[in-house]
Amino acid sequence: MTLVIKNLSQSKGQSTLFRHLCFALEKGRQVLVQGANGAGKSTLLKIIAGLQSPDKGEITWQGHPLFSDKAQYFSHMSYLGHQNGLKRSLTPRENIEELLCLANANATCEKIERVFEDFALTEHANQRCETLSAGECRKVALAAVILKNKPLWLLDEPFNSLDKASYQRMQTSCQQHLASGGMIILSTHQGSHHYDNSQIICLS
């Protein structure tokens, strides 16, 4: 599996966010998108997720233009933006079940419980998300990404609101995903010292 971004350009108003951006992502590899707030990181990930069209450029997935068959692409990809995509009136368990159903994905009860335990969510699993903290909701959203088990993860500032233990747990999950042949594009405004062996894309 290969994702190729070729000559991608995007503007916002009178400002150019990025121009002639090119990179490729293969199995077991990670791309780290860095830049200050407003540099275009979220816009780039939305374009790669197929949620927004670029001004110019081409994106191909397994040799085919992304926009020619979005359904096929979406079946291989999990996207998490700044919003967690949770229904506040539902519990973490109910949200996970609904998100897995929407993604046409399956996970055993044992695997769901293991991920809840890994992220210290077990005691909150049956509380409505509207009663949870921002960090707890972020962990539920990240748990959904892991449980969907899609090969390509697109994660926009995934570690926002996480405590140190959850940050480390998600780092481990990312490494396990890559080791199993998965692919990740991850944006951050932080430094890259925790992301050895990643391809770095800097937006400014």
UniProtKB/TrEMBL annotation:
Lineage top rank: taxon: Bacteria
UniProt KW Lyase keyword: no
One GO BP annotation of this record: cytochrome complex assembly
Domain called ABC transporter: residue spans: 3-204
Transmembrane segments: none
InterPro entries to which the protein is assigned, alphabetical: ABC_transporter-like_ATP-bd, ABC_transporter-like_CS, ABC_transptr_haem_export_CcmA, P-loop_NTPase
Entry's EC annotation: 3.6.3.41
Protein name per the record: Cytochrome c biogenesis ATP-binding export protein CcmA
Source organism of this protein record: Candidatus Berkiella aquae
